[in-house]
Structure formats: C-alpha cells, structure tokens
Amino acid sequence: MTEKTKRRPKMEGRTHIPSLDTEKCVFCALCQYLCPDLAITKDEEKRNQIEIDYSICRGCGICAYICPKEAIEMMVEE
Ligand code: SF4
Ligand code: SF4
Q: Of 19, 24, 37, 53, whose CA is between 20 and 30 Å from 2?
C-alpha cells in the first residue's frame, strides 16, 4: 500500500479502496476515462502520474477491473 493510500480521506459506506502500483502503470488513462465518479486524474506536471482522489472515490473497483496492466488493486478499507 502506498503512503498516499494510507492517508486517504474516509468515505462513509465504502468498503474497498483502489491502491495504485506506479511501477506497473503505463499512464494509458483508461481508468481515468472509465471512473464513474471522476476520481482519477493525470498529473501532467508529475510525468503524467495517475492520482486518485479518495474524497470522491466510492470504491466501485471499475478502475482495477479494467486496468490492462493490473496496476490497481482493491484493498479492504480499515
Ligand atoms: S488503466 Fe492502469 S495502466 Fe492505465 S493509467 Fe490507469 S492504472 Fe495506469
Ligand atoms: S474504485 Fe471506482 S470510484 Fe474509485 S477510483 Fe476506481 S473507478 Fe473511480
């Protein structure tokens, strides 16, 4: 789990959260286009790094399901 994932804001009712492995991500942005909550953005100042906004994410798991590189894993939220 990344440092960023550990410091996520908690959303009521959410059971799982996506955890991004930046070493596997190829910045294709498929997850960004398909996230129903627009919780994923590409930070172009940081070499197009993918950012997940945990204050918006509802933990649906679509991003992890569609990622062609298996760079996103859904983790149980404590
Ligand atoms: S779909 Fe996967 S590989 Fe593509 S940007 Fe998202 S996390 Fe990275
Ligand atoms: S788990 Fe769902 S809401 Fe959260 S970032 Fe992934 S696609 Fe978006």
A: 37
